Predict the 3D structure of the following.
Amino acid sequence: MRSSTEPRRDGWADAVRDTAHLVRFRAGTVRRPRATVVGIAVVLLLTAFAALGPASVDAGATGSAAVDRALATLQGNLGSAFVGFLLLAIGSAVGSGGGRELLSRSEAAVHPVSPVTEHLGALLLAPVNLAWMVQLWALLAVTALVTPSDRLLGAQLVVVAWVLLATAAGQAVGWLVEGVRRTPHGVLAVRVVGGAVVATLAGLQVAGVLAPLARALPTTLLTDAARTGRWPLAVLVLLVLAGVVVVLGARPARWALAQPPREELRVQSGVHEARPAPEPRRGSPERALLRRLDRGSVWRSVGMRRGLLVLGIGPGLVALLAGLEWSTVILLPGLTASGAALLFGVNAWCLDGKGMVWRETLPVSAADVFDVRTLVVAECMAAVSGVTVLLALLRNGLPPLTVGVAVACCWAVVMGQVLSAVLTWSVRAPYSVDLSSPRATPAPHAAMAGYAGKLSLVTTVTAMLFTGLSTLPWAWVPAVVAVPFLAWSTRKLRRARRRWLAPAERARIVLTVAAV
Amino acid sequence: MTQPPAVVVRDLHVRFGDVEAVSGVDLSADHGQSTALLGRNGAGKSTTMKVLAGVVPPTAGDVRVAGHDAATDALGVKRVVGYCPDVGGLVPRATPWEHLQLSARLRRMDDWEGRGRDLLERFELGDVAHRVVGGFSHGMSRRLSVVLAALHEPSVLLLDEPFDGVDPLGVEATLEVVADARARGACVLLSTHLRDLALEACGSAIVLRGGNRVAAMQAAELTGEAYRALLD
């Protein structure tokens, strides 16, 4: 028990100081500081471009009725997009078990890291998330497009203040849900409530009242105020609210972190009865056994399983309920596949953890090991992006031939791009990580931010190209354009494989991942 | 006819970037014998073991394990070796039984289940055979690593710190595994910091210091004082 004379160690001043220590420690362990600085600069540049670039386009001057309609729709839905960002922040924090951690659980176990420090660390790391960054850029870009240039600064400051508030609120809700999840029967309760929320949203959408309801929320008033002289008041109110929510968020954080992580403990002590060795119709039984082991390593991880389900169902539901058109749907497979790859694929060997040394002593060819791991990463990516496409198909029906070919080719191309990129990174820069906690990431945060930025940029630009191709009258064009992309990805993947097959390189990877 | 040594290492060098982890180790170990590999932290014991297990390729030198060249035939080495690594060594989200199943199938063992069960019982892991190893204690993980190394009755058994954090019953079971391996003619190399257990398990000892071999002797000759003198 703490002595009455002992200073309290979980106060805000201590927590802020400890968070600063942890950030400095993390920054000191960055392997490639110059690349990190370049990465941060690129992200800031992209953010500035999203905030200012669209304002230079005078879309209204085109005189086109379709463009005017599109602008009016964007303007009318900006308030709903604000709500969408809040939902995303909540989803991210809930999905990652309360948000990312500055120090992994095993590293932090020996240090007096308070729940408030954990809370502040999770808040700082919230932007290190592909979906968070893409949504921020989208909000800034749409705001820039629909706001008169003399009001742009105020409107963008309102966006930034909203993003801060939504992130803080998402974090607080994330801790609350994690706290509930850690109570007896909490996992069931969270699943039931989560299902009910999704069902309610689906019901509202089917009844045709979701969009009007979203537009009637106060966020629409906020976006209107952002384009008027009242923006300073809006920014002030949002920032004060954000501060209050940050402070309030520490309460559920304390509650959640004081309880045992039941779901993880259940998985860690999970019993999996013996199954006979697989006897596949095609391929060798050894490869089938390796595949089973790798798949088990993915699906028996709380974080990866939760992440794959969220990525598979979330964007698909949006496509299904919001009735996204194929020109928008075409963007989603690349983003969801990237999200799946960011769960573990960017450091694919970390699935084995310290067991990698033992696996390397098994008499199996290194080529088989690489091929099976590649297949399992590809399966996860294909599964989550496939669900999105399937749900979009259910909503929109079969697309016209050219659009269909463009969607299929784009999907194959972005899969190839992401797969070859993440396997290259896995071989070039492996890390030793412990993925037992759903808050853990497969690589350090700076590296994760770089990976997320690169994947989102490449897949979005590629999808935009194929969106353009889908408007052409020739269905064969997207297929022809896909060929060089696929050839390049294949070349890159083969190069990563060759590097893995070199014994000295493989030894370096094994020893790094196993941290021995 | 005299059998050639099971393990022959000549002038082994292992370099990781600028660091030379092993610099010129020579050793040989015979079938039916157990040899202790001793030395301080960083002496090169674990790296030498990893080379013998086919995990790390030698930077220079000649390494032969049961007739297989570790530099050119790592797969051949892996088939004849059973290796308990010094740290971890287990896939966190797989069960002991799945580890055994994979190891046995990749070595084309047909009737392995009886031996697998027997080893798990001997190491008191029978009741957790189907639990994922992520929740295991350090000692349980070490015991399972020894089981995995011994499952296929390898002709060369490499045990790196097998007693680390293991309870007395686990130590006893490990000593039995070493004795069994020696009795069937396998070569056992055992790396440890615990001189007394090394003497109990092994007939001869090799002491490494700074990546070099500094002594090779009968285990009985390795008194506490002699060992201390070799470490400094």
Q: What stands out?
A: The longest helix of chain A spans residues 65-95.
